[in-house]
Amino acid sequence: MARLQDRVALITGGASGIGAAAARLFAAEGARVIVGDVQADLGSSVAEACGGLFLHLDVAHEPDWRKAAATIQDRYGRLDVVFNNAGVVSGRSIEDLDLATWDRIIGINLTGVMLGCQTAIRLMKANPEGPRGSIINTASTAAYAAIPGDPAYSATKSGVRLLSKAVAVHCARAGYAIRCNSLHPGATDTAILAPALQAAPQMIDAFNRMSPMGRMAQASEVAAVALFLASDDASYVTGAEYLADGGMMAGHPGI
Ligand SMILES: NC(=O)c1ccc[n+]([C@@H]2O[C@H](COP(=O)([O-])OP(=O)(O)OC[C@H]3O[C@@H](n4cnc5c(N)ncnc54)[C@H](O)[C@@H]3O)[C@@H](O)[C@H]2O)c1
């Protein structure tokens, strides 16, 4: 039996990288996948390859969430998995950071996850068999060790970590079978790293050396952890934080 057979799964940031890998993996495990993203061309082709649906969803924009919820309700009548995975970096240190950039990063990486959790709970509560589902929020190793060149990113990822726990405990105490966990990738070979690599191609070595395994993650390796959290294999896992970082946070670097 496939691990997500007939589950309806919304993946934000599903047009690229970890989200696209998750869309493919979830679909291969029987899920009906909805790719929510702001990149229509890429998102539509991922959705098509998965036999799923693309929705234009700017996660920072509440009306987009309302529209997405209405479409999902009309089309599927249920929602089982929400992978709040869309995210962006700013590449600006505290001295270079302007308020508009700070607001944009907070809007997408933190407010977007909060709106995603609210939408997930609202729809999952209305599932025909009662409140049930799994929410997975992509944070980062930056939730534990700051990226000095990107305080906005670090602040949002740290926020996602405790936001996820608050949601998890709220749902469990309310008696909902709705789980919520955070996923913390280390450096992963996706498009999000492209601006940093364009500016300084030698950064590739630094990204590889961040993990004691000596290499970055592939998006599919992070998506595999999201699949576990989405599935019933994780039925007793909520409020937890899952690292997929090749051991990066397990030891002091270089000694
Ligand atoms: N790649 C890494 O090294 C790494 C490490 C730790 C955490 N992460 C996190 O993983 C998640 C996925 O990133 P990725 O590495 O796959 O990068 P990616 O750039 O390949 O994918 C990010 C996706 O988010 C989408 N997106 C951006 N703004 C959006 C918005 N407002 N609404 C909806 N979608 C939007 C993009 O269009 C893109 O498809 C992000 O939250 C990122 O912070 C990545």
List the bound ligands. nicotinamide-adenine-dinucleotide
| Beta-strand fraction estimate | 15-25%
Helical proportion, percent range: 40-55%
**In one word, what is the shape?**
globular
Secondary structure tally, helices: 8
Number of beta strands: 7
Low-pLDDT residue spans: none
Q: Name the CATH homologous superfamily.
A: NAD(P)-binding Rossmann-like Domain
CATH topology-level name: Rossmann fold
Distance between the termini: 45 Å
Key words describing this protein structure:
255 residues, alpha/beta, Rossmann fold, seven-stranded parallel β-sheet, 8 helices, binds nicotinamide-adenine-dinucleotide
Describe this structure in words.
The structure is a single chain. By secondary structure, the protein is α/β, with parallel strands linked by helices. It has a single domain (8-247), classed as Rossmann fold (3-Layer(aba) Sandwich). Helix content is 44%, strand content 15%. The protein contains 8 helices and 7 strands, in the order βαβαβαβαβαβαααβ. It has helices at 17-28, 40-49, 62-76, 99-125, 151-173, 194-199, 203-209, 219-230, and strands spanning 8-12, 32-37, 53-56, 81-84, 132-138, 177-185, 241-244. Strands 3-2-1-4-5-6-7 form a 7-stranded parallel beta sheet, with helices on both faces. Strand 4 (81-84), helix 4 and strand 5 (132-138) form a beta-alpha-beta unit. Helix 1 crosses helix 8 (219-230). The longest helix is centred in the middle third of the chain and has 27 residues, at 99-125. The chain is globular, with a radius of gyration of 17 Å. The chain starts with 7 loop residues before the first strand and ends in an 11-residue tail after the last strand. Bound molecules: nicotinamide-adenine-dinucleotide (NAD). Nicotinamide-adenine-dinucleotide (NAD) is lined by residues 12-13, 15-19, 37-39, 57-60, 85-88, 108, 138, 140, 185, 187-188, 190-193, 219.
